[in-house]
Amino acid sequence: MSELLIKPQAADEDGCVHRITPASAGWQYVGFAEYRLDDGDVLAFEADDLERCLVIVSGFADMAAGGENFANLGEREHVSEHIKPVSLYVPSGVSAHVVARGELTLAVCSAPGGEADAYPVRLIAGDDVGYSLRGEGSNTRHIYDILPDRVDWAHSLLVVEVRTPAGNWSSYPPHRHDEDDLPNQSLLEETYYHRIFPEQGFAFQRVYTDDHGLDETLAIHDGDVVLVPRGYHPYGVPHGYEGYYLNVMAGPTRKWVFHNHPHHDWLITP
Q: Which of 13, 19, 138, 196 is deepest in the core (most CB within 10 A)?
């Protein structure tokens, strides 16, 4: 199996089914974890040099960080619901505490946090999440910006949810962001946390470079994570199934500036 395709594992004692670190991914910035918790389960994150965005994928939770308490967070019982997510941003140097209220799926997005307490703890409620409809025809997808680069809420992290309708393409035309060459392009590592509805479905993602030194086409199933260390990374979902993914990006500069593959740049509507 490809080293870029990470399958969920049996939950450990903390309920963790994915635990991706820069060391395990072979890169420098992005970390991702997924926890599946039952009612009353508790998670604790110690204060360290990482900033975190705790995204409630589905379910409800009480959270606390930096002396602030947030009760009964969450808006959707299942990730398939087209409802904006609720998240909590926790800066570096700040501990956090999570208590599940019923079944909870929690995504923990992490990256280097810079100076401790440089950013405040921030509840990112549904009203704070930007929405846009991107593309046209079979390239249409729904974008939910949790931590976009247009807001100064974090040191490194960029976090976004994307929903791709049945039969459509996303992260398309193929683009890359693997060169630290601003203002032309930014260097951002990226993870894709995938869900499929109905859950027995599948999707495809290709990760490839211009010289094809990296060129892999991956069959995606519900709960998989794809690592994108470099290169182009288009995604397609078959007829009859809807695709969801949660993107985590980070790099030396918190800016998303990408380069389209020149062979397919003509697809962009002027």
A: 196
Strand partners, 45: 96
Q: Please report the pLDDT score of residue 245 as a whole number.
A: 98
C-alpha 217, offset from chain centre: 20
Q: How many other β-carbons are positioned within 10 Å of the β-carbon of residue 258?
A: 15
CB 49 within 8 A of CB 31: no
Task: Report DSSP letters for 78-136, one per residue.
Answer: STTS----EEEEE-TT--EEEEESSSEEEEEEEEE--STTSS--EEE-GGGSEEEEESS
Sign of CA dihedral 72, 78, 82, 85: positive
> What tens digit of pLDDT does each residue of 58-111 get?
999 999 999 999 999 999 999 999 999 999 999 999 999 999 999 999 999 999
What three-state secondary structure class fits 164? strand
Average pLDDT on 14-41 reads 98
Residue 261 CA: distances (Å) to CA of 3, 155, 211: 24, 29, 12
The pTM for the full model equals 0.96
pLDDT exceeding 90 applies to what percent of the chain?
96
Phi/psi for 126 (5° steps) reads -55, -40
Number of residues in the chain: 270
Of 49, 30, 51, residue with least CA distance to 121 = 51
CB atoms within 10 A of CB 15: 18
Q: Going from the N-terminus, what domains does the chain have, and what CATH number goes with each? A: 5-267 (2.60.120.10)
pLDDT, tens digit, 9 for 90 and up, residues 167-178 = 999 999 999 999
As a whole number of Å, the end-to-end CA separation of the chain is 40
